[in-house]
Amino acid sequence: MEAVAARISETLTIDEFKELPEGPPYYEYEHGEVIEMPRPHPWHNHIVIRLTSFLVDFVTQHRRGLVFADVEVQLGGNLVYAPDILYLSNECQDIFDRKTGRICGAPDLVVEVGAPSSAARDRFRKFNNYLSAGVKWYWIIDPDVLGIEEYHLVEQHYVRTATVAEGEVFHPGVFQELEIDLAAIVGPRL
Q1: Which of 109, 113, 123, 167 could bridge 137 with an S-S bond, Cβ 3.0-4.6 Å?
Q2: Cis amide linkage into residue 143, ω under 30° from 0
Q3: Where are the alpha helices (DSSP H) in the chain?
């Protein structure tokens, strides 16, 4: 473990990052920097599990692709993230390597559920990196108020297409026939 800690204190190449042992602890990779990802709060996990299940049911029923939670995604040569939730349409599944379980390329949708330790990264660094990588849809969920912000990639810019408060119904652009009431999906607060 000490050898791993010593390695991550230095700048690593993407190949060196891929050689790190599987966690815990878990890491993300940004332009040579290895970022340790702290364990999320149980409420965060509850939101991720319930929303992932809801999206998996919808996508499976409509045969629209694949939904994953906490799967490693390599965006170009310098970024490796593990978004809370991601969606790959049928047309985009070639970026999923079934052997390694990794995704190399931009998913159709990335969902990040905020946490105090990651809020700034989700809103700024990841926002810009997902944009640059070509992620078509990006949702940021505020777990404290169960709010959802939706961004859509339009002509190399993200346009906010929805801001939904707790108890309001969200009609996501990527799944236009779907209705999401996040408060009803996740149930009472833990």
Answers
A1: 109
A2: no
A3: 2-8, 14-18, 42-61, 119-120, 126-133, 182-186
What is the model's pLDDT at position 165? 95
Structural domains present in the chain = 1-37 (no CATH), 39-186 (3.90.1570.10)
Adjacent-strand bridge partners of 37: 26
Q: Is the dihedral of CA 110, 26, 133, 126 positive or negative?
A: positive
Separate counts of helices (H) and strands (E) for the chain: 6, 12
pLDDT band at 8 (very low <50, low <70, confident <90, very high): low
| DSSP label at residue 188 | S
The answer for residues whose C-beta is within 8 angstroms of residue 113's C-beta and 6 or more apart is 40, 44, 47, 48, 51, 84, 85, 141, 143
pLDDT average, residue stretch 110-129: 90
Phi-psi region of 167 (alpha: psi -120 to 50; beta: other; left: phi over 0): left
Q: Supply 169's token pair.
A: 């119904």
Query: Which tokens in the block code for residue 167?
Result: 């108890």
Structure tokens that stand for 86 in this block: 């991601």
Q: What percent of the chain has pLDDT over 90?
A: 78
- For 140, counting Cβ atoms within 10 Å of its Cβ (0-12 exposed, 13-18 middle, 19+ buried), the class is buried
